[in-house]
Write a structure and sequence with these properties.
about 250 residues; alpha/beta; 60s Ribosomal Protein L30, Chain: A; Alpha/beta knot; five-stranded mixed sheet; 12 strands; about 30% helix; elongated
């Protein structure tokens, strides 16, 4: 296995560039850290172009051999690549999932309007995966699902279902099913809504909620009652409750 001992190595510098969304969009590649995320990418049939590992003997041979190229790095190089305080010692450059043909037949969809917190986005992706939703549509202004913090929060679910960036209004106009949006006004208690075989659920920005213009395109507006003194629920928690309610 070829060794890389300098952070100035061209392959390391290129991999490090993938921390920026602009570079991920340009190349169609992402940088992933940790055995769990890499393993989930492999299980999802994604191409592992490069693997950078500190101690190859610590990891399963099939994990290492799944990559087209393998490189042994030292801890200093790992610190440069890592997005955490304590590097996990294994990194991969992976091709993004191809989701271009998976949106048309979707029956149960999560629509995200400018969800910006990586932890919230990762949790919602994980919940959508757990509930076996078909698709996530994200509006411009949302966090990138392939940034490090979202990848970690999703626990690899980002590889399990198609996630596309699109104009939500345009998607809703062509969606043949009820669309539910979260709102405080002119909304019904979510408990009064029945489960649906086909639906889209629209969740809004952490601070501003769903864009009022988008709410005009919803079939029904839902609210979750506050029985205690809390003013509202975190969008990831509220979204998770509503996803499972609509799933039934």
């Amino acid at each position: 296995m070829e060794q890389i001992t300098s952070a100035q190595n061209a392959k390391i510098k290129q991999a490090n560039k993938l921390k920026k969304k602009k570079e991920r969009d340009k190349t169609g590649l992402i940088l992933v850290e940790g055995t769990h995320l890499i393993d989930e990418a492999i299980k999802s049939g994604l191409t592992i172009q490069q693997l950078f590992v500190v101690e190859p003997e610590r990891f399963a041979p099939e994990l290492v051999e799944a990559a087209e190229e393998q490189y042994q790095i030292n801890f200093k190089v790992a610190e440069v690549l890592s997005g955490t305080v304590t590097p996990q010692g294994i990194f991969a450059v992976i091709e993004k999932p191809d989701v271009s043909k998976q949106a048309e037949a979707s029956q149960q969809v999560l629509l995200l309007d400018r969800i910006q917190d990586p932890g919230n986005l990762g949790t919602l992706i994980r919940t959508a995966d757990a509930a076996a939703l078909d698709l996530i549509v994200m509006s411009p202004g949302s966090a990138d699902p392939f940034q490090d913090k979202v990848l970690r929060a999703s626990q690899g679910s980002v590889f399990h279902l198609p996630i596309i960036s699109n104009d939500i209004k345009e998607f809703v106009e062509h969606f043949d099913g009820p669309v539910y949006g979260t709102a405080l006004e002119d909304a019904i208690n979510f408990n009064d809504t029945a489960a649906q075989e086909k639906f889209a659920l629209l969740l809004g920005n952490e601070g501003q909620g769903v864009d009022p213009e988008l709410l005009e395109y919803t079939t029904e507006r839902l609210t979750i009652p506050m029985y205690g003194k809390a003013e509202s629920l975190n969008v990831a928690i509220a979204g998770s409750i509503l996803i499972y309610k609509l799933k039934g």
